[in-house]
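Support request from a user on the community tier.

User writes: "When I paste my structure tokens into the form, the page sometimes reloads and wipes my input. The last time it worked, I copied everything first. Here is what I submitted, just in case something in the input itself triggers the reload:"
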């Protein structure tokens, strides 16, 4: 069986996270530098032998430099000691229609936990330049405290400043290699 290697197309992909601030609004953050590597049996993603996602913590952007610096600090991601977020998928299973579940191990700040995300498979196409591409929309939720991101503060009124729940959203376009 021929294995097929796929890598992310960063110009047509984005990785974001969302968190409630003061429990009244949502702040969105992005990883500007990331990579996805997938190895499949032919073009069948349900027979993927390797699914690895990495993101550079120093590339976090929330469109607020002060907040970004705080997120990179030891209060949150501790970029100085933990430069990457990493997800290693170990099972990609069909749910229904174009919907799948991706199970794997997520490592943030040196802590690894099992995580399952929802994947909507957009399909495989050949672009105008002859490249074969596959598209995916990925969503999920994690509890940041389970990964050691435990900083928090409370307002005078007793409201939590940052929610424990982090929503994950990604649009990933993979390019077939070779």
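"...and here is what came back when it finally went through:"
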């Amino acid at each position: 069986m021929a294995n097929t290697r796929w890598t992310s197309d960063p110009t047509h992909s984005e990785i974001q996270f969302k968190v409630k601030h003061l429990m009244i609004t949502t702040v969105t953050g992005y990883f500007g530098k990331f990579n996805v590597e997938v190895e499949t049996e032919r073009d069948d993603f349900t027979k993927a032998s390797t699914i690895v996602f990495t993101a550079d913590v120093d590339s976090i952007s929330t469109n607020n430099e002060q907040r970004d610096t705080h997120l990179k600090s030891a209060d949150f991601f501790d970029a100085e000691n933990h430069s990457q977020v990493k997800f290693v998928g170990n099972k990609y299973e069909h749910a229904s229609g174009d919907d799948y579940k991706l199970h794997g191990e997520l490592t943030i700040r040196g802590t690894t936990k099992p995580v399952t995300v929802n994947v909507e498979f957009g399909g495989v196409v050949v672009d105008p330049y002859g490249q074969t591409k596959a598209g995916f929309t990925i969503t999920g939720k994690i509890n940041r405290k389970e990964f050691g991101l435990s900083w928090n503060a409370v307002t005078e009124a007793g409201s939590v400043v940052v929610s424990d729940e982090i929503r994950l959203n990604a649009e990933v376009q993979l390019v077939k290699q070779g």
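Agent notes: The reload is a front-end session timeout and is unrelated to the input. The two ends are 15 Å apart (CA to CA). The mean pLDDT is 92. Escalated to web team.
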